[in-house]
């Protein structure tokens, strides 16, 4: 058999990615989500309210990049949580195996990064050329922003938020898997919210930071980061709450109280542990039932734990905190110069508060 080794070694160009390698990601990406494409709606609404970018290609490209990051993170997240269902369907790793799914998720992080640092500077340059604005021909001319600057800024934004995501996710996993060891020194509510800001807030911050690269508005992005952070926290608090009370959520996840089954320190669970004595139904589920499989096979104990969380006031605490933070986000929106009574972003923020009381 003749081998053309010279052809093999003479290039560093990447071959097109095999569909077999992409299969776990492709499978997940085509599953309909349960949040009405909230992240893209947020992107569009934030642009309408603050950035005023009128180029739909820019919005679409940023939306696609964020969606790739999000879906890739879900592949890894489902493995880390030993989940069985995602969006009402079997998780990718249950169909394609853990090794291939991990590789596919990690691969798509880099696909998104490569796409961002390639497509976004090119789009930026096209927009400047259409406007007739000159750009610097070299990095030594610092008087004008050039495509290389946009590439560097894009790369820095994405790397920073990937670091935040993994730091937040890592803490979430550590608290869950080390619960026996940290029971005497549980994280505070503030520490939990900081973790959430890293883990969930990143995709909201990405929208703000990437939109700012293209915005004709003089608004400083730093003034919007606290709002993006708060919306990420609100989104996670709402998710924590619905995980324990919403039957539609149960249908998508396949079980009631999935966070409890995983042993996760969600906000109502953490609050309940912090302010209630040991030997409760919740303590039994988290400390005496050793594995997620044990908890899944004991739905009566899960139901008793959820009831205890409710009767202890922790669901009410979570509900009240959600309403408080939604009100704060609306106040922050109202503090910016332009009126926001009819803006889409306000509608999205208000919708976060529309959950049943405990």
Automatic annotation (TrEMBL):
Pfam families: polyprenyl_synt (PF00348). GO terms for biological process: isoprenoid biosynthetic process. GO terms for molecular function: metal ion binding; prenyltransferase activity. SUPFAM superfamilies: Terpenoid synthases. Transmembrane segments: none annotated. The keyword Transferase applies. The keyword Membrane does not apply. Keywords: Magnesium, Metal-binding, Transferase. Belongs to the FPP/GGPP synthase family. This is Farnesyltranstransferase. It comes from Clavispora lusitaniae. The lineage of its organism: Eukaryota, Fungi, Dikarya, Ascomycota, Saccharomycotina.
């Amino acid at each position: 058999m003749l081998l053309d080794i010279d052809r093999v070694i003479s290039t560093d160009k990447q071959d097109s990615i095999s569909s077999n390698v992409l299969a776990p990601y492709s499978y997940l990406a085509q599953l309909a989500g349960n949040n009405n494409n909230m992240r893209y709606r947020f992107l569009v609404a934030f642009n309408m309210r603050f950035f005023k970018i009128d180029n739909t290609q820019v919005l679409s490209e940023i939306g696609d990049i964020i969606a790739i990051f999000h879906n890739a993170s879900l592949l890894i997240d489902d493995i880390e949580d030993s989940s069985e269902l995602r969006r009402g369907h079997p998780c990718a790793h249950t169909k394609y195996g853990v090794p291939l799914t991990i590789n596919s998720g990690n691969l798509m992080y880099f696909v998104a990064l490569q796409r961002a640092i390639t497509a976004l500077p090119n789009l930026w340059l096209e927009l400047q050329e259409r406007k007739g604005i000159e750009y610097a021909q070299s990095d030594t001319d610092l008087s004008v922003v050039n495509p290389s600057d946009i590439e560097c800024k894009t790369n820095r934004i994405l790397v920073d938020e990937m670091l935040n995501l993994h730091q937040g996710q890592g803490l979430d996993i550590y608290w869950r898997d080390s619960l026996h060891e940290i029971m005497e020194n549980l994280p505070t509510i503030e520490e939990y919210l900081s973790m959430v800001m890293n883990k969930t807030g990143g995709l909201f911050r990405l929208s703000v930071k990437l939109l700012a690269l293209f915005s004709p508005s003089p608004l400083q992005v730093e003034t919007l980061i606290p709002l993006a952070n708060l919306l990420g926290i609100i989104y996670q608090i709402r998710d924590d709450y619905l995980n324990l009370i919403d039957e539609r959520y149960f249908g998508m996840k396949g079980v009631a109280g999935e966070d409890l089954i995983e042993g996760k320190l969600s906000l109502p669970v953490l609050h309940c542990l912090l302010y209630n004595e040991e030997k409760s139904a919740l303590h039994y589920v988290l400390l005496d039932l050793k594995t997620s499989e044990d908890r899944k096979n004991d739905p009566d104990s899960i139901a008793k734990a959820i009831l205890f969380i409710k009767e202890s006031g922790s669901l009410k605490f979570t509900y009240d905190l959600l309403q408080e933070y939604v009100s704060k986000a609306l106040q922050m929106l109202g503090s910016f110069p332009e009126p926001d009574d009819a803006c889409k972003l306000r509608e999205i923020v208000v919708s976060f508060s529309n959950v049943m009381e405990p």
